[in-house]
Amino acid sequence: EAHGKLEDFIDKNSKSSLAVDAYEMLIEVASEEGRHEQDSGRRQSFFNDAMGAIKKLRGFRPTQADQDLLSLRAGDVWRTKMEAEEQMNLGEQAKATCRRAVATFTVFVQAHEPSPQHPAKDMTPAQLANLERAYATMIPLFTRLGAEQADRVMKFGQEYLDLFPNGKARTEIANCMNQAKADLPAGGVKSEK
Length: 193
What we know:
By secondary structure, this protein is an all-alpha fold. The chain has helices at 2-12, 18-36, 40-60, 64-87, 91-112, 125-144, 150-163, 170-183.
């Protein structure tokens, strides 16, 4: 019911600043509805509505910092959908959705990782926090995809530990890397960038 009322409100007030708050709420409401929906088509529709609201918000959020947060929220919506599919024992669908979530976070990391032109020491605290969040979410998702992603777990895990030696997720990342080490063939990490 809240979902429909939010969509009606947005339709009537799409140019209003209040539409921003309505889109924010729609992301949460649609994701929560999708999390509990048993019907595959309806579940997909709810998550599509959440992603659509994120896309609409991009037009209201002009700063790079806001765009970055929306990119991370898109990854979170995919992760929520994956978790719902796992709870419903929809293994193949969950794996496909996990790949989408991983892709979202990987694109973010690759677009925002430090470089000689933009070293970590020159990044704002918000940029570093977003980057840490992306790594900390992405690496366990790669682990969920199995042994074929072990090289990426090792590569991105080491990047995380190098960038955030006191990071909030260092224990989880180290655990993911230990699992990946066991999955790697003798010879170690393939180089991939």
